[in-house]
Design a protein that fits this description.
By secondary structure, the protein is mainly beta. Helices cover about 10% and strands about 55% of the residues. The chain has 2 helices and 11 strands. A hairpin with an 8-residue loop joins strand 4 and strand 5.
């Protein structure tokens, strides 16, 4: 096997998050518009690279008023900062299917390192001959480290500082997809 380039399929993938709300529950949301490329070799995972771009204006927490606020200059400022990016730095193999990835996450113009725990789901070839791979990834970060310090609740109770990430990734062989 060799290092192959895989294109994330956003229709079969998800990028979701959750954060504590009013200290007693969790708000869940996702980004609807995002894309990425993975360079991966099962036999040499340390060579893996991941590049992801997320449109912050595609945030969806199932509350239109909250989503509008999150897009506004008061929070993500999606017009001024139209992309959230993740660029992997290192990948460490834990076992045959699990890895720990360190990457540079940029939100609101601020870049910080974030760890993701990644599980490789495997690979398969579809009926059209295109190869697919899958991954699940989990991680978290402190929103305040990215300058996202504004209150999200007019009553004075804010959401928690720690944002939990969950990614379900389906990707296809980029060369085969372009040829199809």
């Amino acid at each position: 096997m060799s290092l192959k380039t895989w294109e994330i399929d956003p229709t079969d993938s998800s990028l979701s998050f959750s954060v504590s709300h009013m200290l007693v529950s969790r708000i869940h949301g996702e980004f609807r518009q995002w894309s990425g490329v993975i360079r991966f070799d099962e036999n040499a995972p340390a060579l893996t690279t991941v590049d992801v771009n997320v449109d912050p204006s595609s945030i969806d927490t199932r509350d239109a008023q909250r989503d509008a606020y999150l897009r506004s200059p008061e929070f993500f400022d999606a017009e001024r900062y139209p992309a959230i990016t993740f660029r992997s730095r290192t990948v460490k193999r834990i076992d045959a299917r699990r890895f720990q990835m360190l990457g540079a996450l940029t939100i609101h113009g601020v870049t910080r390192d974030v760890f993701l725990n990644v599980e490789y789901g495997g690979r398969m070839r579809d009926s059209g001959g295109v190869e697919h791979i899958g991954f699940s990834a989990r991680g978290s970060f402190d929103r305040k480290a990215f300058g996202l310090t504004q209150s999200l609740d007019a009553g004075g109770l804010i959401v928690g500082d720690r944002v939990e990430l969950a990614l379900e990734i389906a990707a296809a062989d980029r060369r085969a997809r372009k040829a199809a």
